[in-house]
Amino acid sequence: MAVDLDVIFLALLFLVWAVLGLIPWLVAAVIRRGRGALMTLPLAIVGGAGGGVLVPAAGARDEAGLFLSLSTALLGGLALSLLGPKMSRRSGPLPRPPE
């Protein structure tokens, strides 16, 4: 049973993009001392993977595109990590359920 190496490479690439998206989240969580950081964790992962996917989708599929996708994964994770606390402040506290 042969395993297609393209699938393994893409899965590994998505994993690297997600981890690169977590790095800005980790820095922001340490700076904010954990306040509101857990809500932004999925946003950072999606931002990293989404930022990484944008470069190959735009057509850069060589070595330079690989390194550019790694840097855009960092930027995507940073952007959505910073967006999360702003979204939580706008939504305000949850209303209490009726007793």
| DSSP, total strands | 0
- The SS-based structural class is mainly alpha
Indicate the proportion of strand residues.
Answer: under 5%
Largest sheet: none
Gap between N and C termini: 60 Å
Query: Which value, in Å, is the CA radius of gyration?
Result: 17 Å
Low-confidence stretches: none
The best one-word shape is elongated
Helical proportion, percent range: over 70%
Topology pattern, helix = H, strand = E? HHH
- The overall pLDDT average reads 82
Number of helices: 3
Describe this structure in words.
It is a single chain. The chain has a domain of 54 residues. It has 3 helices and no strands. The longest helix is centred in the C-terminal third of the chain and has 29 residues. The radius of gyration is 17 Å and the shape is elongated. The termini are far apart.
Q: In terms of topology, how is this protein built?
A:
Blueprint: H1 5-31, H2 37-58, H3 63-91
Helix pairs in contact: 1-2, 1-3, 2-3
From the structure above, extract its key features.
single chain; 99 residues; mainly alpha; 3 helices; 0% strand; elongated
Write a brief structural summary:
By secondary structure, the protein is mainly alpha-helical. It has 3 helices and no strands. The protein has a domain at 34-87.
